[in-house]
């Protein structure tokens, strides 16, 4: 009872601050009540309340569906958009989709919160006029591992290739090949078939300890003890570290070799409700909403207002796993669109890799 | 036309018309499309385009054959294990005197179907994991000190497949055994046959239709299994169903996916031929 009283008292004290928050809260433009928005996003990539708050603010219903790789999403849209209004492709995939006319141009005037985006993230090389996309979150691809299995830490990819225990790779073919190509001294975005095949053989030779090529759930495999190392995206590993409040896991970009990626909101062709998708983009780019997103999923925010406003936990802003230091960033490779032909080369090499990993 | 119609009315072949129409539109036609696509080239984004080519079949029988053979092997092994487990079980159930016991036993065989297959397969992950139930119990008993690698192996896939398809073996054999007249056993033994001989010459041949049906019902879904190897097999237990799925998803190569599907259908067809001819020999004998 005493506790309850204290809580109420604390609530009263905090009330003015909460009121301030409400003042700044994102408001939905009118005229969308009763409509439906269908979102197709990566797994474990949204805060618990992001969608419910949007539904409440706009009086709309949101269908939320997930995918595990750019390729899986792309395949679905290529076969005919099954009814999604919003997808979240990485940079290179935005370019590929735009070229194949799989995206609808967005109307920036409907999205005033574009003003919040970090300047460097506007007009990226893969979409120079932000004609099709606006940034969602960004992060890196490296490895998460159980600290107990690596008392000395991981200093290079060789530590993973030669590890005597269970390893999980990730079903992100561009990144896996990019790592091998970088180590071999080639361009991670090469379109040369000999180089791609050399990278394939390099990976096959070093994959005997790989028990599974995980569908973006490497962090779960780590937690469950199925593997000791998992190639994964930064935030997914941060999420389990945050959950356990322990030091059982760590995330590293081995020897500085890894990938930095930028995911973007875009509207696929034949979207039933592109206007509402743009309203949702504006909502995500709100300072508070964007900060809540980062606070929950532990990926880096492309939102200057979220960063400046102090809404993002300081702990996260200071975390080098989430926001890698500039000198590290400079060494990471970015996947770009390699064109349809190289895409097929990589896909064939990936199939061969899967066949021989278990053989 | 009208004569044909009147004749069909008489012999009842019109009764099959809805089914025939359904199968033509939703089975034969799509099958023809898959066949044609499998002979076309891969275009941008994995769609089929001209010209015609055999390259996808070359690839299917090339490096993809490793996985094809693995799938056939795993499905065959699954069938054998299901038979070894299911045959005695079917006998046990059909020889219970009290019908209520029989009914309960049959009910228990079908009970797992109440839960979604995906969820049951996920449950196996928890059982087989390094820190899973089985390893936990073995470690607690002091049988092992290091966890056994159970999950992400072909063994795990085998376990999952046997678990999933066992009822398909038990039910047809049960139906066969139930019709079996046990006085034949007495007759065989009166005529001097020992137990092995009675089983091999009398019991087994007379229950063979059930055995063959059960084997076909287990082998066919096993060879194309996709969920089980996906969840339990990891890199070591990849099967042809996973590769076909990849071609229509991430790897974006519909013609290759179609060629793989056609070849897999060929395997299924062969196993059905074995079933049909096996059956004919049995009923002819």
Q: How is the topology of this model organized?
A:
The complex is a heterodimer of chains A (359) and B (285).
Chain A: H1 2-24, E1 36-42, H2 50-58, E2 61-67, H3 70-78, E3 86-87, H4 91-99, E4 103-104, E5 133-146, H5 157-161, E6 167-170, H6 173-183, H7 193-205, E7 210-214, H8 218-223, E8 229-233, H9 234-244, E9 249-252, E10 259-268, H10 274-284, H11 287-297, H12 304-309, H13 314-317, H14 326-331, H15 339-357
Parallel strand pairs in A: 1-2, 1-3, 6-7, 6-8
Antiparallel strand pairs in A: 4-10, 5-8, 5-9, 5-10
Helix pairs in contact in A: 6-7, 7-15
Chain B: H1 2-11, H2 17-38, E1 40-42, E2 48-52, H3 55-61, H4 65-94, H5 99-110, H6 117-128, H7 133-140, H8 154-179, H9 183-190, H10 195-223, H11 227-233, H12 240-248, H13 254-284
Antiparallel strand pairs in B: 1-2
Helix pairs in contact in B: 2-13, 3-13, 4-8, 4-10, 6-11, 8-10, 8-11, 9-10, 10-13, 12-13
């Amino acid at each position: 009872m005493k506790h309850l009283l204290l809580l109420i008292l604390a609530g009263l004290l905090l009330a003015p601050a909460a009121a301030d928050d409400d003042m700044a809260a994102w408001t939905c433009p009118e005229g969308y009540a009763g409509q439906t928005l269908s979102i197709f996003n990566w797994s474990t990539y949204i805060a618990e309340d992001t969608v419910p708050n949007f539904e409440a603010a706009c009086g709309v219903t949101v269908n939320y569906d997930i995918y595990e790789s750019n390729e899986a999403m792309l395949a679905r849209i290529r076969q005919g958009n099954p009814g999604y209004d919003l997808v979240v492709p990485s940079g290179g995939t935005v370019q590929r989709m735009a070229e194949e006319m799989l995206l609808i141009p967005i109307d920036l005037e409907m999205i005033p919160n574009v003003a919040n985006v970090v300047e460097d993230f506007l007009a990226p090389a893969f979409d120079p006029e932000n004609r099709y996309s606006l940034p969602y979150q960004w992060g890196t691809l490296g490895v998460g591992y159980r600290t107990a299995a690596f008392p000395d830490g991981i200093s290079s990819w060789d530590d993973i290739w030669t590890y005597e225990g269970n390893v999980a790779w990730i079903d992100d073919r561009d990144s896996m090949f990019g790592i091998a190509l970088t180590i071999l001294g080639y361009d991670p975005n090469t379109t040369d078939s000999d180089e791609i095949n050399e990278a394939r053989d390099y990976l096959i030779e070093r994959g005997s300890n790989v028990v599974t090529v995980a569908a973006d759930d490497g962090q779960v495999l780590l937690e469950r003890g199925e593997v000791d190392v998992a190639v994964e995206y930064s935030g997914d590993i941060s999420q389990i570290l945050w959950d356990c409040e322990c030091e059982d896991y760590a995330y590293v970009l081995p020897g500085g070799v890894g990938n930095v990626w930028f995911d973007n909101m875009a509207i696929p062709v034949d979207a039933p409700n592109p206007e509402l998708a743009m309203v949702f983009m504006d909502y995500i780019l709100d300072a508070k909403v964007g900060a809540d997103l980062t606070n929950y999923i532990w990926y880096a925010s492309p939102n200057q207002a979220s960063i400046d406003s102090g809404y993002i936990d300081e702990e996260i802003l200071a975390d080098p796993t989430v926001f890698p230091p500039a000198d590290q960033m400079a060494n990471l490779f970015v996947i770009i669109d390699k064109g349809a032909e190289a895409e097929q080369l990589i896909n064939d090499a990936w199939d061969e890799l899967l066949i021989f990993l278990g053989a | 036309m009208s004569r044909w119609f009147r004749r069909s009315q008489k012999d009842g072949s019109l009764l099959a018309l809805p089914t025939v129409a359904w199968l033509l539109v939703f089975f034969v036609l799509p099958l023809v499309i898959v066949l044609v696509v499998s002979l076309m080239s891969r275009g941008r984004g994995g769609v089929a385009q001209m010209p015609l080519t055999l390259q996808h079949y070359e690839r299917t029988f090339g490096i993809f054959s490793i996985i094809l053979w693995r799938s056939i092997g795993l499905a065959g092994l699954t069938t054998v294990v299901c038979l070894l487990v299911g045959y005695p079980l079917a006998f046990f159930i059909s020889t219970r005197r009290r019908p209520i016991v029989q009914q309960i036993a049959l009910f228990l065989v079908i009970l797992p179907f109440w839960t979604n297959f995906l969820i049951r397969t996920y449950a196996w992950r928890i059982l087989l994991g390094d820190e899973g139930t089985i390893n936990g119990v073995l470690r607690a008993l002091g049988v092992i000190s290091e966890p056994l690698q159970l999950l992400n192996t072909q063994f795990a896939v085998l376990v999952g497949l046997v678990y999933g398809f066992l009822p398909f073996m038990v039910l047809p054999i049960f139906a066969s055994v139930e019709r079996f007249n046990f006085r034949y056993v007495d007759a065989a033994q009166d005529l001097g046959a020992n137990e092995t001989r009675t089983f091999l010459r009398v019991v087994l041949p007379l229950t063979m239709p059930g055995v063959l049906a059960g084997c076909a019902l287990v082998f066919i879904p096993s060879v194309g299994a996709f969920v089980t190897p996906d969840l339990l097999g990891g890199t070591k237990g990849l099967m042809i169903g996973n590769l076909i799925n990849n071609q229509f998803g991430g790897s974006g190569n519909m013609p290759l996916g179609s060629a793989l599907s056609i070849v897999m259908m060929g395997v299924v067809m062969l196993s059905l031929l074995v079933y049909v001819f096996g059956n004919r020999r049995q009923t002819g004998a």
